[in-house]
Amino acid sequence: MKKDFFASLWQTLRDIPRWLRPGLGIKRWFVFVMIGITLLGLGVAVIVIDLYRTDSSNPILLTLLSYASLRFIPRVWRAVIFGGLGVGIVVYGIYQLNRSLLRPFIRPGSDMFDQLTNFQRRERGPRIVAIGGGHGLATLLRGLKLHTGNLTAVVTVADDGGSSGRLRESLGILPPGDIRNCLAALSNDEALLTQLFQYRFSGSPDLEGHSFGNLFITALADITGSFEDAVVESGRVLSVNGRVLPSTLHDVKLVASMELPHSLNEVRVEGESRIPEMAGRVRRVWLEPDNASAFPPVIKSILNADVIVVGPGSLYTSILPNLLVHDLLSAMQISRAIKIFVCNIATQTGETDSYTCYDHIRALEGHVGEDLFDVILCNNNYEGEIGTSQWVRADEKTLSDSRSYCADLVDEGHPWRHDSLKLAQVIIDIFYERTGPLGDRTL
What we know:
With 443 residues, the protein is α/β, with parallel strands linked by helices.
């Protein structure tokens, strides 16, 4: 037992330099505790000295006090011994107390110091707003949550297909599908929660095709009385790193004007899920009603952001439905944040067939105006098989644009997708390249 105690004490003392590193917020409180203990020690010392001086008739007591105070050792060494033992015992006690208090919040097998370091680093991370929808936004969030805790995901509510569409039609609730994906991506326990939230029921006519996550958010909306409160409570239940916000609380519908093959006329296509199914080329998309106002917390997040990332995701059905909310677009235009557009790696059948990076940015700026973005982030790794899709290449027109920034963003296991870690690291690198190590904008 003693051996274990001294081994643990020695390990704690060895870890002292780690705990005293700048930025952890430990040193100030350690000094505060030491001052309190010193004052307490001075009070006890005054009592002992007074007892030693007034009760000199008891030789046994005097002998005990003499040995306890190590009077046979020079005064300097006595100070070192008592001071060292005091610091060691205080550090060990504080460390064990913190372990006991934080045990419910520390993952088994993980180091408390490493978790605290990562938490403090993320708390000081840049304020990032990620705008989009679908699996592309979830992929981005998985990487960014490792760099910052100041993360806001803005998600489209124009989805009308699958489980989300059925809930939207039958219950009048905003589609929860993309929000569900983002909540799972930002969760602290993504491996388990993703399986649970993405689980789809089968075998029952009423539940067939519905995901557990969609039903969970729908139930919370009924309990709390509002969709926005349901999203907030879902984030708390899942312990997410950041926030997930709908771009608008209005029941909007995405409409497209499409040019069909062998036809000179354009046709109107209603519904986000129907647009990719049409064998034609998208000319323009818009929201109905077109005067839907943005969710106020979204506006606040955009105006306070250090970085705004748009994409990756389906150009016409995931990205543009957010930017077509006029208040949201106006907030982006006046925001001083670094605005980054992340171009897709592969084309999407029925939506961006044969598109290059230049085609993506041209279509985007044709809807929202030019010079909205400071950086156009493109992939330059074209190795691997991507099935029936095509690479979205950074062509000459793209490379001639001074805003273009090319990097290897490919997920080696799924070349048609972005690698979440690569993508997040490039975005963080761009931010610090433009702001410096302290994150101060240099305009």
